[in-house]
Every structure is written in structure tokens, then in C-alpha cells.
Amino acid sequence: MTDHxxxxxxxxxxxxxxxxxSIWEDINKGEAxxxxxxxxxxxxxxxxxxxxxxxxxxxxLSNHCPDAPAAVVxxxxxxxxxxxxxxxxxxxxxxxxxQSNMDDYHYSTELNxxxxxxxxxxxxxxxxxxxxxFRVVEHLFFINFIKELNAEYNTxxxxxxxxxxxxxxxxxxxFKVNSELEKEMNxxxxxxxxxxxxxxxxxxxxxxxxxxxxxxxxxxxxSENSHTAEYLVTVIEKVIEGIEEx
Length: 246
Fold this sequence. Notes:
Order of helices and strands: EEEHHHHHEEEH
Strand content: 15-25%
Largest sheet: 3 strands, antiparallel
Number of helices: 6
Structural class: alpha+beta
Number of domains: 3
Distance between the termini: 76 Å
Strand order of the largest sheet: 1-2-3
Helix content: 25-40%
Number of strands: 6
């Protein structure tokens, strides 16, 4: 008696896990340096990371890469701005036993997520516009001052303030500027350079509209190059090309 074995297609097992992150379409993935972590380099500029965190790579393409195409910049601006909506950046702090009842002494009104987002944005602007050191956000007296205003608001950590809220606000501002410039015609580019207190050569590039609105389009550190006429022409042409793409 002969056994007949029917041929049947072999089903491949689904490996499961998260799908590959789209960031690697714009970032070169290097060697693995840990669980889910890789060395990385930008496909558009010379930036490299020994340990490329996805959030940092997105922030680079959204806010800091000088050579990324406009479409790529806009895509990652949206991703950075969406990040704040998907997670609550103001996490409750762990106070020591002596501070655990701080809320009992302060006025308290419940805050919804939208209200917390507005407060966070105002907090970032305050620290930046006034030149306040980011470490102050974790100072007990500053926290107590905020609790006096409303005990329901939890101040962000220094890390969240710098790495999340600041980057999100920067993406918001860049997106708004680009949107405004898209509506305008006959733009004028002005630029100026100076030496910082750390002896760096800083140049700003300002776009002016016919209605006399001014937008800081780019701030560049040109310390590594000689400021010859030919070099400055190249820099200006590159800025103009970026404005035209946007």
C-alpha cells in the first residue's frame, strides 16, 4: 500500500513585532548598539549618531537638518507636532514623603488636556524668551510657585521641557512661518552676522514681506568657513532655494 502525500504550500510565520519605522527611509541605519537601537547618519547632511533614538532623528529632520527636502521637513514637522497630542508630556512627579502632601495646601482646579497643552506652550516660550536656565523647571521653589497657581498642573521635567516641548514648539513655529510665506509674493531676504560671546560667527537670515512682516527664516553658525564673497553668495543662494521649495 502506497501513502500519497499531497503537496501543500508552506505558510510563512508572521514574525510579529512592530513594523519597521519609516524614519529609516530618510536616515541611514548603522550597526545595532542595543535592543532596537542603531547607529545612524542623515541621508541629507553629515550628522551622525552613535545611538540614534527615533524621536531625536525625527526632530533633526523636522527642525535642524539644513539639506533635507521641503517635503521631508514638512512630513516630520507633522510627526513632531502630533507627538504632543498622543502623549501627556506633563507626568506626575514622585515627591519625597515630606513633599507628598504639597497639593493639600494649594488652590486646585481640574485641567483638561487642551488646557495643559496651552500651559506647556506658554511655559516653553517663557523659558526661551527670558533666557531662563532649563534646570529651574525642577527647582522646588519654582514647582511650589506653580502649585500656588493651580495644584492640578504638574510641571514637566527638564528632559521633557527640552526634548519634547521645545522641539514641538519649534516645529509649530516653523510650520506656521512656512505656511505664511507660501501665501506671499515679492519677498525680500535680509541677513546679518555677528560674533557671539563664545566667539562663534552667527548669521541670521530674515524674510520680509511686502506688508513689512519679518520672519527669522534661518540662524546659522558659519564659524568653520572663511567669509569670502564667493562663500556668502553660496550660502545666500542655498537659503533662497530653501525658501522657494517651501
